[in-house]
Amino acid sequence: MLSARLARSGLRATAQQFSAPRTAALNGLRTYATPAQDVRPPVSLFGVDGTYATALYTAAAKSSALDQTSKALTNLGQVLKADRKLTGLISAPTLTVTDKKQIVAELQKLSGDKGEIVQNFLVTLSENHRLGLLEGVCDKFETLMGAHRGEIELNITSAQELDNKTITRLEKAVTKSEFSQGKKLKVVTKVDSDLVGGLVVEIGDRTIDLSVSSKIAKLNKALTDAL
Description:
The protein is α+β, with helices and mostly antiparallel strands. The protein folds into two domains: 2-147, no CATH class; 150-226. The chain is 51% helix and 11% strand. A four-stranded mixed sheet has the order 2-1-3-4. The longest helix is centred in the N-terminal third of the chain and has 17 residues, at 66-82.
């Protein structure tokens, strides 16, 4: 894992993160050498990680490198999710300039990207003490790319992991409904044992709660109101 390799190389950092940025996110962004174009992100994002994701999307779009950048961010997101200690390590306030350069070089390798956009972006995060936001940036960049491709996210939460056949049936059912809005669905599955059983399906601003926990809650309310 990257966190172990960095630790062995001499990095000894705590998981404490900066509570405030040294500079505002946009003011601290590195200037990308891209042609002047009017690029508008497909959706508006919130939060500091959303600001960075939007800036990266704009830079990649201007350089016609959206797919390449998306692949790199997906790779980095998978690394961060696989090694949960890594976010704390790369966001530690005790990192030296040399530490940060080493981290950026390692992340660049793991991204699989050889261009300057992702590299410059990682350097920007490093200089602004924002490497701890990288996982959030990866997630929000994917949100931008989904909107760019005309996708709409279909979130399926179940008490137990669903098999592929059930997921496919649900996807087809939603595709034929008005909820899909004629867009391509991006299926995201989650497991939440608190549901007890059943499903919660979310698409756009619509939520269909078919969980057992929801039915129990309604039953309890009906009993309470009747007493």
